[in-house]
Specification:
By secondary structure, this protein is mainly α. It has helices at residues 15-31, 44-47, 54-68, 85-96, 99-103, 106-115, 119-138, 147-168, 174-179, 183-188, 192-206, 220-237, 276-284, 305-313, 316-328, 333-360, 362-391; strands spanning 2-7, 33-38, 75-79, 212-215, 245-248. The model has no long low-confidence stretch (mean pLDDT 92).
Length: 394
């Protein structure tokens, strides 16, 4: 079975990437025909003002892929922008994809509002409008088939309208000052590429006629949209694309140093590129049970991120010992972190040494991605020849 997945080039990978994505990719490459894409064009959807970072981030991410076990002899590793056929199929798909399909995509608005820190404001507007919308619907001179669905639709649209009115200056500007977001910020994120990036994702999958896509639950709407676009193209022009299936993967629950989800944006990540000293500093600064202030205080390991790491990296005997001694107060947080650091370092050290070897040989990296991109492009060219025959254009 042909499987495709990819990542935006955001730079160095951390432990969350490994347990959430890469570990599964390694397993898949043993069992299937796998294509792994560095999605540098996708990076432009939100980062088009900072293109100088993309090349460096690409090299860092590819270095980590190879370090962690993605094998160019088993998988096709390629750069999206090196396969120009993606752009041609994106143009053609955009001609047949209804705009409403993109606007209804749940991650479109969520991503935009998260970027601009507008999520809480949207929820506040919805909460304040809910009773008014219920009253309005009760007085409608029309039969309502689905009251709850219509209510949510109105709330969504009214909330979006009020947010737009805020940026247009129709509402008090005090809220904008508190958000520290400008009118330019609001409209700069509202690009055609940002709205249409799920169409480009469909291209990434369908141009290789991938049969499966490993995704987390939050990405299911994108796979479903790819299926819809494939069906629409096939109905219009004849059978060309298989409908890809989602391979649901478990999202990494590995916490960062502050207890939140590990993320570069939270500055709470442990990277495979981190030195031994950096890892030690981060581990010793880990968030722990706030009620356990000193050694002797009974702890609650079930809520402690350090204990979560013990469960992943420590042998079962040590996990049982740490849990018991934490609850009794016998084990203090500093000693618990030191024990965890030993196990974590045993895991990281082989990767760190391997990474240094890859990082020193940039030419090797570029050769791997060049050959992978050529292999990917051969397939994309064949697909586009078939597409042009089907639509009788080009």
């Amino acid at each position: 079975m042909r499987v495709l997945s990819g990542m935006r080039p955001t730079g160095k990978l951390h432990l969350g990437h490994y347990f959430g994505v890469i570990k599964n990719w390694i397993k898949l490459q043993q069992e299937h025909e796998t294509f792994y894409m560095i999605a540098d064009w996708h990076a432009l959807t939100t980062g088009y003002k900072k293109t100088e970072e993309i090349q460096k981030n690409t090299e860092e991410m590819l270095t980590d892929w190879l370090t962690l076990g993605i094998d160019p002899d088993k998988s096709v590793l390629f750069l999206q922008s090196k396969v120009k056929e993606h752009a041609e199929l994106f143009l053609l798909f955009s001609m047949i994809t209804p705009k409403s399909w993109l606007e209804w995509n749940p991650t479109y608005k969520d991503t935009k509002y998260n970027l601009l820190r507008l999520t809480d404001l949207s929820l506040m507007f919805k909460g304040g409008l809910r009773d008014h919308v219920k009253t309005f619907l009760a007085k409608l001179p029309y039969r309502v088939e689905d009251f709850e669905a219509l209510e949510e639709l109105l709330l969504d649209n009214l909330s979006d309208t009020l947010i737009q009115a805020l940026f247009e200056g129709y509402l008090s500007k005090d809220t904008l000052k508190e958000l520290n977001v400008s009118k330019r910020d609001f409209y700069d994120t509202d690009t055609y590429g940002f709205l249409g990036y799920p169409v480009l994702q469909a291209v990434d999958i369908l141009i290789y006629k991938a049969q499966a896509v490993p995704v987390g639950e939050d990405q299911l709407p994108h796979v479903e949209l790819s299926r819809e676009i494939a069906r629409r193209f096939n109905n219009l022009y004849g059978d060309t694309f298989p409908e890809p299936q989602a391979m649901l993967t478990e999202t990494s629950k590995l916490p960062g140093t502050d207890g939140r989800k590990m993320s570069k944006s939270y500055n709470n990540a442990i990277y495979f590129a981190d030195s031994k000293e950096e890892v030690q500093r981060k581990v010793m600064g880990f968030f722990t049970d706030p009620q356990k202030l000193r050694k002797g205080d009974p702890g609650r390991p079930e809520i402690c991120p350090v204990f979560f790491y013990h469960k992943i990296f420590s042998p079962s005997e040590r996990v049982e010992e740490v849990e018991r001694d934490c609850k009794s107060g016998r084990l203090g947080c500093v000693d618990c972190k030191k024990l965890m650091l030993e196990e974590l370092e045993s895991f990281l050290t082989p990767f760190r040494e391997k990474r240094e070897s890859f990082a020193r040989d940039r030419n090797r990296l570029m050769e791997i991605v060049k050959l992978g991109s050529e292999r990917a492009r051969m397939i994309a060219i064949q697909t586009m020849e078939e597409v042009r025959r089907q639509i009788k254009v080009g």
